[in-house]
Write a structure and sequence with these properties.
Layout lengths: L2 H9 L2 E6 L1 H12 L2 H8 L11 H14 L7 H6 L3 H5 L10 H13 L2 H15 L6 E11 L26 E10 L4 E7 L5 H12 L5 H6 L1 E4 L6 H10 L3 E4 L5 H12 L6 E5 L10 E11 L2 E10 H30 L6 H15 L7 E9 L18 E9 L5 H11 L1 E6 L7 H18 L16 H28 L6 E3 L2 E3 L4 H8 L3 E6 L6 E6 L2 H9 L20
Parallel strand pairs: 2-5, 5-6
Antiparallel strand pairs: 1-15, 2-3, 3-4, 6-12, 7-8, 8-9, 9-12, 10-11, 13-14, 15-16
Helix pairs in contact: 2-4, 3-4, 3-8, 4-7, 4-17, 7-17, 8-17, 9-11, 13-14, 13-15
Length: about 575
């Protein structure tokens, strides 16, 4: 080492390495859609009193949600190992991101009508990233809470027990709903009561959207949702407001039964074979057939599309085979029970068999039984008989012999076919073929899969969020994190050339998720060299071919990992 270099390092006050990859990706994406500027514009705050703007604080929460999966849990400690200035702007320090400061930012978000704020951010993101709105999907999830929350604010969503989508019915919860495009980019979101039904929320979400999307636009796009969409009230509202939709028709509607019966037991040639839609799955890919019939609800005509799936058939076949075996065991048990009973007449024995088999609900066996008359001698009375005590006369009783009998193969096959079908309902015109409607509905599964990413953070603890309105505001922060997640996923998939793959942690994929991107970028580190009277010198410490390729696909320059922009958000303190 030469003297000059030795002298330089001799003056160094210290060095530290920081993880920056995930935070920089988030920072770059939110900058393009004016995330912080929108929050600072819509939230009440005084720039003269705030060293760190509410937009920056909420961005800090979003970054922590995405990278650390933690709510307000020890935020200063979380950012102690982060390059805070690089991520949030010059002058911002980890100590400024304490629980109280972040809690006040959540209060400001709640006071500004978080639902309106969130939709404004979403629409600005859609404009910035040129997202096409041709299809909308609805989805909901529940977020569990630790603690009792006995005192709740009257103006916020109610923390309550309800149907728990993370299988924790013992915990209080609130619900989060979102309306997203076909690519999974949110348009609107909501935080609502933990015991509210999806059906009610779906109707309220439609009414909310009508303030943002006019009737002409609603008539051009296709609204897609699961069966919670289909209620009499929702159907009437959609017809009145001009929605074009496709959803799954609940089996509780008689029209679903009629449509399936007509499709399954009508002419076989009317089925349309649409084949395999996911050929990359190989032998696991499902083979689909469909058939369209017409139905009428409340005087309105609807298209009913019956879908038959080979994978669903195989799945139901296994389930029904287990049920068939249980029926066999149940009939044997019943046979032993009835065999130990005696009846006074033939009719009573037959009636008992009919009643007991009816309670079992046997469907896949043809039970066989016969009733035999038997003469029995009543037992003698206990004790020494009297001299004039004559033996009691013999009695005729009737006994049942019951066996499972042969399998009812026809009934079994009919049930397999029945349960391997489901019905879609739509009021879209014929410009959407039946196959188009099915493909649109299949997109709901992809959106639901991405939306489940919101389930990854730890449960919210009352130690850090005692105020239920803050909990609700944090729900909107989670939705903001989901918006960034969806944009990153869309960007990486669009940028990846057709037929090309991306290696993620040893596995190649042509449809990388945003989480896979974050997992790779987690390895990007920056070294800080600190000298007296000089700004911190940042050196890219860890990089790789995979990291560089992701940055190129996301259109993020490598220098973004080490360069603090001169003024990220000039209107902040």
């Amino acid at each position: 080492m030469d003297d000059e270099l030795q002298r330089l390092f001799g003056q160094m006050e210290g060095a530290a390495a920081y993880n920056v990859g995930v935070g920089v990706v988030v920072r770059e994406f939110v900058q393009r859609m004016q995330f912080v500027e929108t929050l600072n514009e819509m939230l009440p705050w005084d720039p003269k009193q705030c060293a760190v703007s509410p937009g920056q604080r909420i961005l800090a929460l979003v970054m922590a949600f995405i990278e650390d999966r933690k709510a307000l849990y020890q935020m200063p400690e979380v950012y102690r190992d982060r390059d805070v200035e690089l991520l949030l702007g010059a002058g911002v320090q980890a100590t400024q991101l304490n629980d109280k400061a972040l809690g006040r930012a959540l209060d400001k978000l709640w006071a500004a009508d978080p639902k309106r704020v969130y939709s404004t951010i979403c629409f600005r993101a859609i404009e910035a990233y040129e997202v096409v709105i041709d299809r909308l999907h609805n989805d909901t999830t529940s977020i569990s809470l630790e603690g009792a929350y006995e005192e709740q604010e009257a103006d916020g969503p109610k923390m309550a027990r309800g149907f728990s989508k993370d299988l924790r019915p013992d915990l209080l919860q609130f619900k989060v709903g979102a309306t997203v495009t076909g690519e999974g980019i949110p348009l609107a979101g909501d935080v609502f009561d933990g015991n509210a039904t999806d059906q009610k929320w779906t109707l309220e979400a439609q009414k909310w959207l009508e303030g943002w999307i006019n009737r002409e636009q609603r008539e051009e796009l296709l609204f897609v949702a699961d069966s919670a969409l289909v209620t009499d009230d929702n159907l009437r509202h959609m017809a009145k407001e001009g929605y074009r939709f496709v959803s799954r028709l609940p089996n509780s509607y008689a029209y679903a039964t009629a449509a399936r019966a007509e499709a399954l037991f009508g002419p076989a040639e009317r089925w349309i074979d649409i084949g395999v839609l996911a050929p990359k799955q190989g032998s696991r890919a499902s083979h689909y057939q469909l058939r369209e019939v017409q139905g009428e609800i409340d005087g309105r005509e609807y298209r009913l599309v019956v879908i038959r799936s080979s994978n669903l058939f195989d799945l139901k076949r296994k389930t029904l085979a287990r049920r068939q075996e249980k029926e066999h065991e149940a009939i044997q048990v019943l046979g032993r029970k009835l065999g130990q009973e005696s009846f006074n007449c033939y009719e009573d024995a037959e009636a008992a068999v009919t009643a007991q088999l009816g309670r079992l609900g046997v469907r896949f066996w043809k039970p066989e039984h016969h009733v035999e008359a038997e003469i029995v001698q009543p037992p003698r009375r206990r004790g020494r008989p009297a001299k004039d005590d004559l033996p009691r006369p013999a009695q005729t009783v009737y006994r049942v012999h019951l066996e499972p009998g042969p399998k009812d193969d026809d009934a079994f096959e009919r049930e397999c076919l029945w349960q391997s079908t489901f019905v879609l309902i739509s009021n879209a015109d014929q410009s959407h073929t039946a196959k188009d409607l099915f493909l649109a509905y299949r997109g709901q599964a992809q959106v639901e899969s991405a939306f489940r990413w919101l389930k990854s953070p730890v449960r919210i603890s009352p130690v850090f969020l005692k105020n239920t309105t803050r909990i609700s505001a944090f729900g909107y922060v989670a939705l903001m994190a989901y918006l960034v997640y969806a944009l990153v996923q869309r960007a990486i998939r669009q940028a990846l050339p057709e037929g090309d793959t991306l290696e993620i942690l040893g596995r190649k994929t042509d449809r990388p998720t945003a989480q896979a991107v974050f997992d790779v970028m987690q390895a990007a580190k920056v070294l800080h060299l600190k000298f007296p009277a000089y700004p911190v010198k940042r050196i890219l410490l860890t990089t790789s071919e995979r990291i560089n390729r992701i940055l190129i696909l996301l259109r993020i320059p490598v220098d973004a990992l080490i360069t603090v922009p001169p003024s990220i958000w000039p209107n902040s303190g």
